[in-house]
Amino acid sequence: MKIQAINGFKDILPDSALLWQQIEQRARDIFQRFGMREIRVPIMEKTDLFVRSIGEATDVVEKEMYTFTEKSITMRPEATASIMRAFIENGMHVQQPVQRLFTIGPMFRHERPQKGRQRQFHQLDAEIIGAQEPQVDAELIAMGQMLLDELGINTSLEINSLGCPACRPPFRTKLVNYLELHQDALCDDCKRRTTTNPLRVLDCKKSTCKAIAKDAPSILDSLCENCSDHFSLVRQALQDLGISFTINRFMVRGLDYYTQTTFEFLTSDLGAQAAVGAGGRYDGLIEQLGGPALPGIGFAMGIERIVLLMEQKNNGTSLTQNTDCFIAALGQEANKPCSQLTHQLRLRGINAAMDYSGRSLKAQMKQANRVHARFVLIVGENELKQEEAVLRDMKTQKQQVFSLAGSVSEQGERLAPVLRA
RNA sequence: GUGAGCGUAGCUCAGCUGGUGGUAGCACCGGGUUGUGGCCUCGGAGGUCGUGGGUUCAAGUCCCAUCGCUCACCCCA
Which of A26, A60, A359, A373 is a plausible cystine mate for A363, CB 3.0–4.6 Å? Predict the structure, then answer.
């Protein structure tokens, strides 16, 4: 039996990891521009936290969680619940009336893997807690848009409002009544959804169901005055920031805690997975978890999905990690002084590499090329005797003599500036 | 949980109606270049054809089972 990774759990190999670093770095940069501060929360929580926040009847909770039943702890399927728990537990609202937080890390859902979907996957997650102004909704959405733009990813933005505890239940009743009139024309899934998750029928991909959804009562017509005002101010604020969007009154989110504004950044380049990022407002969540009655809004972006999009955009060309200086040691005599010089260079912040195998110069040059060395320092027996080495610039192919006079420390002191230039 | 497709070298794949596993490409190692990379050229190494069973004179190829992967449904980032 061959040892291999668990289904849905993927290695991120070095070449790809460079792209991951780039994405995460860009995300941190942009989040910080928006005043977001990083928070790191555990990847496991008591199962109850997820049940209470995400919702008992959601697919995520019902069938996708990795739960250790003995103590009933669960590997997080998303980050928002954990962050809210940390927020409440540490009384963070006392420190600052508005908390802007982000986290980056792995999430776990026991679904069947497919393109753009892993069982361990990674999210960039941003939350703004304690502010209910519509401008904040727009600001958060703008932040997500800015990140995707700067990464060079084309997405379309769709927004919707799901209402609040005052206006959603009446709408739901209205919708169920409508759907029950059209049961015969709905697909089997949607017949089931009529009772389990009627809003989801509106988002069904089947054309027959779409036709029914088209004339279904719209949540946007059923919003209470407060929600309606909020939604129009969000739209206005997005326009003020120059963010283009379309309204999708059929958009539904899979987690129960969402209220009012919801949004998705969509792509058509990921097969069945359209959402690169998505989020929304969750005004009742913190209180429901036993914290203060504070509003919140957040989004999550799937890093794997971003990586896929970026990889297929610059198809073929991958990022490379460079080496400042490769030291080619010829003969066993050269190994010791070369290893010392390599170390001296590293002490001075230089990315240096060498090979102890005593292979031919040709082989070592090949290795230097493979690690993208900018310079190669060739140290052979002749050079050692004469206290000199050959420094080759791999790009210009020009070579110069480098003196090995003095201690290794002095050598490093002289060589480092040349390599940095 | 459901459905479909696919498992041949580290990777990407040829392999027809069963008849000896491919000078295959990329990557790797070595030579051509007696101490100089990329390009070129020559050579080398690398395989229980996912696994188990069956049919057959003969199975990578056909049949069954099993494991794995992929895509899609459901749902979601």
Answer: A359
3-state SS, one letter per residue, for A296-311: EEEEEEEHHHHHHHHH
Shortest CA distance to A91 belongs to which of A284, A259, A290, A281? Answer: A290
Residues forming CATH 3.30.930.10 domain(s) in chain A: 14-167+223-313
Chain B positions with any atom < 7 A from a protein CB: 1-3, 28-31, 33, 35-38, 50, 68-77
> Protein A21 CA to nucleic acid B36 C1', in Å?
34
What are residue A117's DSSP bridge partners?
A: A114
Quickly give A329 CA vs B31 C1' distance in Å: 21
pLDDT in tens, A100-147: 999 999 999 999 999 999 999 999 999 999 999 999 999 999 999 999
Longest dimension (CA), chain A: 95
Q: For the domain bounded by A14-167+223-313, which CATH number is listed? A: 3.30.930.10
A168-187 pLDDT tens trace: 889 988 888 888 888 887 87
Angle at A122 between CA A134 and CA A76, to 5 degrees: 85
What is the CATH T-level fold of the domain A323-416, as seen in this structure? Rossmann fold (3.40.50)
Q: Protein A165 CA to nucleic acid B2 C1', in Å?
A: 35
Q: How far is CA A399 from the centre of its chain?
A: 44
Gap from A6 CA to B56 C1', Å: 39
Residue A400 DSSP SS3: strand
Q: For the CA atoms of chain A, what is the radius of gyration? A: 28
List own/partner pairs for A412-417 with CB under 8 A and 24 or more apart. A412/A341, A412/A344, A412/A345, A412/A347, A412/A348, A413/A344, A413/A348, A415/A325, A415/A341, A415/A344, A415/A345, A415/A377, A415/A391, A416/A344, A416/A345, A416/A348, A416/A349, A416/A350
Task: Indicate the length of chain A as a whole number.
Answer: 421
Q: Which nucleotide is nearest to A193 (CA to C1')?
A: B74
**Distance between CA atoms of A53 and A80, rounded to whole angstroms?**
9
Closest nucleotide to residue A394 (Cα to C1')?
A: B37
Structure tokens at A87: 């927020």
Which residues pair with residue A299 across a beta bridge?
A126, A279
